[in-house]
Amino acid sequence: MKRFELPLWAPALGLALAAGLAALFSSPAGAELATWDQARVTAIAQQLAAACDAWEQALRRQPGEAIGSGRAEEGFGLGQQARVLREQSRALAAHLEAGKGHDQTVHEYQSLKEVVDDTEVEAQRAALDEPTLDAWAGVADLLRQIAPYYDPKALGETEKPEGD
User: Fold this and answer.
1) What is the CATH number of domain 38-157?
2) Does the model's pTM come out above 0.85?
3) What is the pLDDT of residues 78-95, one digit of tens each?
């Protein structure tokens, strides 16, 4: 019976593969959260809640599509997402105002971020007027401001928040 032997390069390939996978699934070098500032994060969250409310109101004022155009469902989907964003942003702001910190609110932020991501995809398919787009820009800007306090990848994508 012939004995199976691994080629000499096999261990090196295994190490290289393991190192590559570790790099793929690890955080980027230097990835960290912004220094937590309860007052600043709370203020941003309050502004975000107001911006989400303004986004929902702008969507309601958005001229509707003609019946039978096939685009009415898109507006309905955005309206539902706007309602969820309003509710989730208000909850995040209220919990921060009550003194809850990062660890107690991170899941709320993550849930809110998922809805924002879905809304951005949906909004790209909709014909939105300028006031509605401006309202969305306000939501997106505030989300970029609060993200570094919750998402380590955000500091690499944005400037460091004020106060750090």
Assistant:
1) 1.20.120
2) no
3) 889 999 999 999 999 999
